[in-house]
Amino acid sequence: MVGQRQFDERRTLDRAREVFWLKGYGATSMQDLASASGVLRGSLYNAYRDKETLFLRVFDDYAEQFLADAAQALAQPVVDQALRAFFDFTITSMTTGVPTRGCLTTKTAIDTKADGERIRAALRDLLDKMERLVHERLSTGEARSRLAIPPAEAARVLITMTRGIVVMERVYQDPERLRATAAALIDALLTPVDPGRRSQTG
To answer: Which residues contact 116 (CB under 8 A, 6 or more apart)?
Structure first.
């Protein structure tokens, strides 16, 4: 019927995400996406018009799930635990698979063929929302009392670090090295808990 997908869209988008994530936007062709999804290339064009539009549909779903998982990690009751859980989530995400799949956001950001304004806007939107999530977590009284710099600055530094460790993962392929680096930054941003204060509130 006109206006209806003649294929399982959820399955198609999931397969397309896997291809984009592994190969990168520029190296992925519509034929790659058709082969992975089992949907004819013509049907993909009819449904999404072009590769960029299909990628943006995939990235929208990816961003929504990524932010939900990041928010869950940041919900830990103590700020140290929250930030470590946040980095553990991001590192686990980028080191999943054989070979490791890396980070879809950063992989796309450095892809010279992914230079369309709609793609750049989608990447900025995700990073801005990630920064807001971290900023909100660092704006609690418990977190503010331990931060070495204002919450907004700390949030920006932490999100910038998530982009840097993506590159380091590509070079060293050592998740524990990434976690140690993240832990060092967290320790630098947070003052230690006063033992006397801990015993009073415990």
So the answer is: 52
**Spatial separation of the C-alpha atoms in residues 24 and 51, rounded to whole Å:** 12
pLDDT tens digits along 68-113: 999 999 999 999 999 999 999 999 999 998 889 899 999 999 999 9
**Beta strand ranges found along the chain (DSSP E):** none
Question: For 59-192, CATH number?
Answer: 1.10.357.10
Tokens of 136: 């909100």
Give 188's pLDDT tier (boundaries 50, 70, 90): very high
DSSP code at position 190: B
Q: Where are the domains of the chain?
A: 59-192
CB 112, CB 160: distance < 8 Å: no
CA dist 57 → 7, 35, 60, 122, 176 (Å): 16, 18, 5, 10, 33
pLDDT of residue 97: 87
Q: What average pLDDT does the segment 24-48 reach?
A: 96
Burial of 76-91, coded b for 16+ CB within 10 Å and e otherwise, reads: eeebbebbbbbbbbbb
